[in-house]
Amino acid sequence: MTGTASRPTLEAVAERAGVSRATVSRVVNGGDGVREPLAERVRRAVEELGYVPNQAARSLVTRRHDAVAVVIAEPETRVFADPFFALQLRGISKELTAHDSQLVLLLTEGRDDHARVGRYLAGGHVDGALVFSLHLDDPLPGLIHGAGVPTVFGGRPGWGDGPPDAVPAVYVDCDNRGGAREAVRHLVGLGRTRIAHITGALDQTSAVDRLDGFRDVMADAGPELVVEGDFTPAGGERAMRELLERRPDVDAVFAANDLTAAGALRVLREHGRRVPEDVAVIGFDDMLAVAEQTDPPLTTVRQDIEGMGRLMARLLLRRIDGGVAEPGPEDSSGGVVLPTALVRRASA
Amino acid sequence: MTGTASRPTLEAVAERAGVSRATVSRVVNGGDGVREPLAERVRRAVEELGYVPNQAARSLVTRRHDAVAVVIAEPETRVFADPFFALQLRGISKELTAHDSQLVLLLTEGRDDHARVGRYLAGGHVDGALVFSLHLDDPLPGLIHGAGVPTVFGGRPGWGDGPPDAVPAVYVDCDNRGGAREAVRHLVGLGRTRIAHITGALDQTSAVDRLDGFRDVMADAGPELVVEGDFTPAGGERAMRELLERRPDVDAVFAANDLTAAGALRVLREHGRRVPEDVAVIGFDDMLAVAEQTDPPLTTVRQDIEGMGRLMARLLLRRIDGGVAEPGPEDSSGGVVLPTALVRRASA
């Protein structure tokens, strides 16, 4: 990189093109209102002198854009329908704002658009990326790796042996397996014996870990007591209907998240089952907008979603500043795993 | 991050090919004006050195980032709490995806962060900006103007005589005043005589226009029948309580949006007023997630929020591509104003 002394100035471009500084500035910044022959003259002078406009030049030198991308590997409609993402973004936003770094949320219609997200990340627009809600077969981790920007993941990434170059991924997660175990043990403690699990989307590690936690306690549960959901209320409704057909005698349900539990509660009410008398229900997340509004209010496993967002942002800013992200004591591969806590309300 | 040191530079290619930097740049970016034997020499040098054009540098020349910023002049918490924004973003996202342009949502904690948004827009990261929910004293229009990127506004901007340089702002809006008139006329037609209005945030043109529409019909309404809200359910509750104290005999309410109406309905129920028998209520927006869920379901003024988002994106992409945004027939200052329609449900 050449020093600033030798870098051609805006004035030099103006002189070369025979126009005013204001005209150069307007052309360079993509503004309107400059006639084409004039604009062309300015562009030629820019190229001939190798002039780099100020802001971009600054970021080429400092290599800082004071901006961080957030990528949620879900279509835009789900990002706005699931309060989990709003909570996590709230934590991220607070932390980035405190460091005067711009939060840049990259929205997509679906997985087909992830290549474009990779191009934006590689394009020199952000200092780093926070990525969450990854799915196992998602091309994003490879694309992000190719983009070469510092990244912190929300939730343990699902690749088997680490990312392509075996650099440990830095991530923030909660103790999904331990939290699930505590929920199911609580149901056992209530004397329930026919305890079912409605899973999350099983192409996500959080869903797999919660299922593992369920099995840790209910090793003998028959396969008909595990029904696949997808972390949405509609998925919870579908799964609960299937469960009631398979096992009409079910007396407890551990749902993979609060939205799933809310769907299950609706179907139980439809079928005249009393909660918790006939069927006890526990969720996961403790999103107050959901867990306090259900009928009855939901017993659930609390994770500090906003706090996880803050921590992700903090770890990323530290990596950007050239420090290293501190790996948590619980995990050797650069992950920080936060504890969970059972919150008892009326549903179990 | 891979080191820049090992990556071949534009200069190295120029040296290898024995041409100027400008010539390499022109060939690499697919530009014309380089004679074929020279261009071929450059291409060979590119291949031999394994030169990969720097994306940021290339976009300085091509002047395209294939990305559009969306700026909502509200704190991140409101963006996620009000389904209006999700609907508008859905329309924008669909349109941008169809043009393979990345939607970049710039989130903030509040107005203090708008200078940073201006810096990002000026930093050469996007081809243009869609800006909505502006407030009268917001510094954003000036910052955006300074950034010099093509912009389309959602909702008529509130500045009196156009932006600083008198270039007409391009915007998409609905007929707020006409829609309000239709709502209030409907209440008059039902025989209501003590018709009140709960306004939106009066530092936004949409709220002012709806208030004007109310006054067009109710020129004689006393000032105690107009209470200020802020487009939120909490604001609607506060305003409805105040209204019931001022005018316990109120027999109809036109609320500035559906969320405000939802808050007002809750307070009316609390006070034992039957809707619509005692008090008829009309909202504005027709957001199904709100208007169909209230008790009773809400009569409201429909605007095509998602369609407005699509149209904003379309107009912006046309400006970016060098065409001009077509001004609507209804407005000479570059605005496109879409019609509204009254949707009758049980509340009025």
Automatic annotation (TrEMBL), chains A, B:
Pfam name, any one: Peripla_BP_3
All residue ranges annotated as the HTH lacI-type domain in the record: 8-62
HTH cro/C1-type domain sequence ranges: 9-30
Keyword set, alphabetical order: DNA-binding, Transcription, Transcription regulation
Keyword Transcription attached: yes
GO molecular function, a single term: DNA binding
Key word Transcription present: yes
InterPro entries linked to this entry: Cro/C1-type_HTH, HTH_LacI, LacI/GalR-like_sensor, Lambda_DNA-bd_dom_sf, Peripla_BP_I
Protein name stated in the entry: LacI family DNA-binding transcriptional regulator
Organism: Streptomyces siamensis
